[in-house]
Amino acid sequence: MATFKQYDTKKGKKWKFKVYLGIDAATGKRIETTRSNFDTKKAAQLELSRLQVEFEKNGLQQNAKQTFKEVFELWLESYQTTVKEVTFIKTQIKFDKWILPKYGKMKIKEINVATAQKIVNQWAKTTDQYRVLHSTTSRVFKYAINLGIIDRNPLEYVLMPKRVKEVQQAEKVKVYTKQELKQLFNYLDHTKPSYNNDFNSVLLRFLIYSGCRISEALALNWSDIDFTNQTVSINKTLSQTKNGYKVSTTKTVASNATVILDAATISKLKKWQIDQRKYMLTLGITEPTMIFCGIYKQVVTHHAIYARLITITKEANVPFLGVHATRHTHASLLLDSGANMKEVQERLRHTKISQTLDVYGHLAKETKEKTVEKLVKHLEL
């Protein structure tokens, strides 16, 4: 729709018009423009007709020239409002590391099935995340369809390759043996009393006996511990953001749960609550709310714990198995003690038992084999 208006100038009366041309397919914004200084209304109408035709042509050309990266940036702006910040950051990393180097400079209208097939085939040779990368990329093409830039998503017609697994198969989770745990706890119990040493001792005990994720433990407050009923309420996690770390909600509903703790761990926590206050009072600091914070009540990150574990395991003469080893060891101990896979799932707060089986299925098999060995040794026939 256009509006025409006559107006006065020093050189006499002139005509101008204002027109709404449509919606920009890329940005979703209204496109309006004004033209003026026409001697007659007919001249203004002729310019309007020319402008509308030009816009229609240029609009098509603009869409044809848009790169994958340009559409991705529009999609990312909308996507950011739908997910947690930590998920947004991880998605950005996928695009920066894997997707944009392949698709970024290509004109999105020129990307075909053959090109997409070649890319996913290359990914399948280098990473077991190729399916995730493919589906994540597909979101941008679906968004381009919604904008009217393309008519179909070429990624939907790609044949998903099967990645040839290497001889060693999938890497098994690493767990500490009972002897290694004894060495680890013995070392921690005999370190010189200090805020950090006591912190390390309590945290390692809590992680191994609760099965809690490190990011969840570092977000815990003293109010989350029920000393009477010997439980801990897990309902938050320490997440990394662009502006540092912050406490946020857990990723899944299943992660929120009340976990029962053993008496010895509860006793250690009680002592730590008293000792933590004493250490802080020497610096004039009072009323700590977080269980596992720094002496100045600052947040302690999982990166810091990673560095500490390297030192602790070296001093204790046990192997460093990574930051997830405490949770994996907890699952292993549960299975060794006779727990079934469903009980392990509930204890670890996995959404689906298939997730538990995928990670710990081989541990269950090893436990059963040990049971048979015990039977044979017992009979001694």
Automatic annotation (TrEMBL):
Gene Ontology MF terms: DNA binding
Entry's Gene Ontology BP terms: DNA integration; DNA recombination
Location of the Tyr recombinase domain: 171-373
Alphabetical list of InterPro entries matching this protein: AP2-like_int_N, DNA_brk_join_enz, Integrase-like_cat_sf, Integrase_catalytic, Integrase_recombinase_N, Integrase_SAM-like_N, Tyrosine_recombinase_XerCD
Keywords from the named record: DNA integration, DNA recombination, DNA-binding
PANTHER family given in the database record: PHAGE INTEGRASE-RELATED, PROPHAGE INTEGRASE INTD-RELATED
Protein name (record): Site-specific tyrosine recombinase XerC-family
Organism: Enterococcus sulfureus ATCC 49903
Taxonomic classification: Bacteria, Bacillati, Bacillota, Bacilli, Lactobacillales
